[in-house]
Amino acid sequence: MATPRPQSPRPMPSSAKVGLHRAWILPDGIRSFTRTIWPYLWSAAAVGFAASIGLALTSLVRLPNVSMVFLLAVLFSAARFGIWPALVSSGLSFLAYNFFFIEPLHTFAVTQPHELLALFVLLAAAVLTSTIAGRAREQARLAAERDVASQRLYRFARRLSALADPQSVVDHAAIQAHGDLHCPCVILFPERGRLGVVAAWPPEDHLDPEALSAADLALAKGEATGLATTLCPAVPWLFLPLRTPEGTIGVIGVALPNNAPLTPEARTLFETVAELTATALERARLGQEISAARTAAEAERVRNTLLASISHDFRTPLASILGAATSLIDYGARLPEPAQRDLLVQVKDEAEHLDGMVRNLLAMTRLEAGALELNRDWVDLQELFDRAVAVARRRGAPQSFDVHVEEGLPFVFADPNLLDQVLANMVGNAIQHAGSGERITLEAKREGSMVVLSVTDNGPGIAPEVLPRIFEKFARAPRSSGDAGEGTGLGLAIVKGIVEAHQGTVAAVSPVADGRGARIEIRLPLPKEGS
Description:
Strand order of the largest sheet: 2-1-5-4-3
Number of helices: 13
Low-confidence stretches: 1-26, 480-488
Radius of gyration: 45 Å
Largest sheet: 5 strands, antiparallel
Oligomer: single chain
Shape: elongated
Distance between the termini: 64 Å
């Protein structure tokens, strides 16, 4: 017969644990009564302790008056618990002093007039002391609360100053008001002709009709409405308008439990939160308007720059095409065949030039729209360089070219057409800036897991003030014979965008040697082994 396996004890359900835990917690009414009665019990104990000290002193030394000991008990109660426990302590001190220290002892009778006078002087001094000390304690408590409230408002104002989104402002404001006043808070804005809740803490998305009517009235009148106000005093809410220089933009309100209005201090705190919130909302609105204005101004600047570039840089090739076409139309029959061919080649070259500028514009548009598609294939860098040099020479580049490709360099997995455009823009930039008769070097080499492609010229170089922004749109270095990037100032910006789309990097170095020259260098990742 198999021996039954001992079962491990089952864990107690969480609900049972909660119930067991709650069994040791007193009900709310008893806890409230305990908190209320405890200061008075401590005050009575202080009087009993003072009586004990007085009896001990009188048993050792004959003292004419021990009433000062009871005043210490009264001061303790006033400083620790406030005015009402201190008054109770004063009364108990009066009775204890009479019972234990005024003859006949252990009775409340007084036979000597001077003893009666001393007794009432003690009572008056105790009451006056307890009142003064209690008021001082209450003022210290209020000052501490005001300091805490000021610190909270200061931190709230700092948080609001860092917020630029109106929704974040109202969310923080609702949480702040709830934390300060311990009441539910809502913020409402007009939407399509009626108020709607835009923020609330605890989260809420609607109000009852009476509260909504009071909020509408606060928005329309620009005044406080709700409990303890002249407008809708029966509604258990307090609504304050959010006023800005442009007018009332919304309403903030708190629910008042048990129909108890806010204390003057709490009302002032709530009004301060409302003012800070309105100011932050106005600042956020102005910030959005400024941002929109800057965006519009930047868009207008780019548009004007682009139009100016196009109108200026397209004019020269178009004029050449029109001139050659006109000559062919008017004098074609009388021109020798070599002249006709030269004119047709000129038309073709200038059309290719225009096509390159248009492709740059389209590439920049796709880059900015995030719509650039990569059709990757294996690219031979030697062929890539040879094509770029052949195109440059066909277009009449006056420089000499050197091509250096490291032996054994693997193919690059990239978009061949886009890589052609990258290299064409880099070579075109060097041609435009190097000057006639200079040398342009194209080099490819491997560095770790990257391949480095560079185009270097020995021209005058890039001015220091232009170098940091050489890859920005419309960045154009001053020169005597045209513009970089095929005339529109977009060439190197397009290089940067295409290279980064291939997870590569691009950099410019100038001077290169002897205070002259410039190098544009791109780094592309090589395919991993086995891929």
